[in-house]
Specification:
The chain is α+β, with helices and mostly antiparallel strands. Helix content is 60%, strand content 16%. It has a seven-stranded mixed β-sheet with strand order 2-1-3-7-6-5-4, with helices on both faces. A hairpin with a 2-residue loop joins strand 4 and strand 5. The longest helix is centred in the last third of the chain and has 81 residues.
Length: 366
């Protein structure tokens, strides 16, 4: 990073400082604002305007301003004081940005996606963190879930020799906190993966929905971690170019190693979920095929029973038909006066029944 300018008049190099816009809602979104000198807090202004004034009064001081969902007026006030680029201010105001690292003159603009694992619903919650890093200031704009930046600040204040290295040291601490926050998420997802594998082979019908939801979360997690690998390498190159403290460069390399490992784990989760989804689809298909086969077998058995019932009904209907015909009381029915009529009727019944039985038997209906 460039040398820190003298905040006292004349103003720092770069575009002339514009008058700061009014900040009527400082109390609503300013989480913490402090001015540091030699790594130690020398002022805790209550408003942004006080922060600007006290920073100007300090020689070789640094401002660290933490905001949570600031208003447009507050961001414009910061932009006027620190010459922030309008595009970066617009991104910080609207949120929903991809992780990125951009340089506007002597100011870095960093977007990070923070994550946390929620135990009760077993899901991953994502937030967004925008960071402006200048020669003598660091501004954080937080949207949604994010690491405990107050804890980061306390840790840095407990190590003034590190914080005295300037805004770059505070940026490292925030990056480290965001990346460390990924570790519990990775462990929570790993537990979910183990449970899903058990549910898949147990035949739990709800597992498909859970696989889909976790896959969607891993897509978001991958979008948070994968760009961060390249961002950190770019940041390390910048630190080396501008002669940043060697110890701080080593710390940043350690963060880069951690995020690379996390990104590889997330990529592995996505691949494993794809394989689990394939296995689950195969098992579901096999189960559906087994159910269809069972239904077909049940239908076949039912059809066989119907054929048997129909065959016996036809056989029993034959003598009933003959008996009904000869039971009619007509005056002109020669067979009724025939001496062999009765034996003939019985024989006819027997022949028809036997014939039907033989036919149905050959057709395997009986």
């Amino acid at each position: 990073m460039p040398e820190r300018p003298d905040r006292r008049p004349p103003p720092r190099t770069g575009r002339p400082r514009q008058p700061a816009a009014p900040t009527p809602s400082d109390h609503r979104s300013v989480v913490d604002s402090a001015v540091y000198r030699d790594g130690r807090r020398v002022a805790s202004p209550a408003t942004l305007a006080d922060t600007f004034r006290q920073l100007r009064e300090q020689s070789d001081g640094m401002a660290w301003i933490g905001l949570h969902r600031p208003t447009e007026a507050e961001l414009h006030s910061l932009a006027a004081e620190f010459n922030l680029h309008p595009l970066s201010v617009e991104d910080a105001l609207e949120a929903h940005q991809r992780p990125k690292l951009e340089r506007y003159g002597d100011t870095l603009f960093v977007v990070l996606r923070a994550a946390r694992y929620l135990d009760a619903p077993e899901e991953v919650d994502f937030g967004e963190l925008h960071i402006f890093v200048g020669p003598d200031f660091l501004i954080t704009v937080r949207h949604g879930a994010a690491p405990d930046l107050s804890a980061v600040r306390r840790r840095m204040e407990a190590a003034p020799e590190l914080l005295s290295l300037g805004p770059e040291a505070a940026l490292y601490a925030i990056l480290d906190a965001v990346v460390d926050g990924y570790a519990p998420v990775v462990e929570g997802v790993q537990n979910d993966m183990d449970e899903i594998e058990t549910e898949v082979f147990r035949g739990d019908p709800e597992v498909s929905r859970r696989i889909y939801e976790l896959s969607r979360e891993m897509v978001e997690f991958q979008r948070a971690t994968r760009p961060l690998v390249g961002m950190l390498h770019g940041l390390m190159a910048g630190f080396a170019k501008y002669g940043t403290d060697e110890e701080l460069q080593r710390y940043l390399r350690d963060v880069a190693d951690h995020v690379t490992h996390t990104s590889e784990r997330v990529d592995g989760f996505r691949q494993a979920l794809t394989e689990i989804l394939t296995v689950n689809a195969t098992l579901v298909s096999q189960q559906q095929n087994a159910e269809m086969r069972a239904l077909a077998e049940a239908g076949f058995e039912q059809n066989e029973e119907i054929k048997k019932i129909s065959s016996w009904a036809a056989i029993l209907f034959a003598p009933t038909l003959v008996g009904t015909i000869y039971g009619m009381n007509f005056e002109n029915m020669p067979e009724l006066k025939w001496a062999a009529g009765y034996p003939f009727a019985l024989l006819l019944m027997a022949v028809v029944c036997v014939s039907l039985y033989v036919v149905f038997k050959k057709r395997d209906w009986l």
